[in-house]
Specification:
Elements: H1 15-64, H2 73-165
Helix pairs in contact: 1-2
Length: 166
């Protein structure tokens, strides 16, 4: 805890550190929001790939159950190869989503640490302000006591002077 010093106004000696911690906290919050945004973007891409894959599987299914005419085997094979490529893209995208989730969690931890560090300095400032307030109250009390003592001495001196005259 920082020592409180006498003075007319409260001055916190670690104000610059408090500002730096506040700035760092805001930066970490911004980074967390950015990682959250990236995660949402990656999830959106994954959903698009899944929807596209489902659509292409439906087309393949329709092509294979083609009623009277025999389906074109070459086209079916090409479609199947295309679907395998889409499946690879989906696996890659799922990995990207997992990586984004991990990064988001790491960033959240860093943000929480930055918030805790700032809160520690903030609490220290509050405690230091209370200590300063106590010191200033004591000083005010001492000042009032000095005034009361001076008034008492003046009254007792006047009484002695009046007794000496009479």
């Amino acid at each position: 805890m920082t020592k409180a010093k006498k003075g007319k106004r409260f001055r916190y000696s670690l104000d610059s550190l408090l500002k730096v911690r506040g700035i760092r906290e805001e930066q970490e919050k911004d980074k967390f929001k950015e990682s959250e945004r990236r995660l949402i973007e990656e999830q959106r891409k994954e959903d698009e790939i899944k929807a596209f894959e489902k659509e292409k599987y439906e087309e393949l299914k329709d092509m294979m159950s083609g009623g009277a005419a025999l389906p074109d085997v070459q086209r079916i094979m090409m479609r199947k190869a295309h679907l395998e490529k889409i499946r690879e893209q989906l696996a890659t995208q799922e990995e990207a989503v997992k990586a984004a989730e991990t990064k988001k969690e790491d960033q959240r931890k860093q943000m929480v640490l930055a918030m805790i560090e700032k809160k520690i300095i903030d609490k220290d400032k509050t405690k230091t302000r209370l200590a300063w307030r106590k010191i200033m109250n004591k000083e005010d009390g001492k000042f009032l006591d000095d005034i009361a003592v001076i008034g008492y001495e003046n009254r007792s001196r006047k009484k002695k002077e009046e007794e000496g005259r009479v």
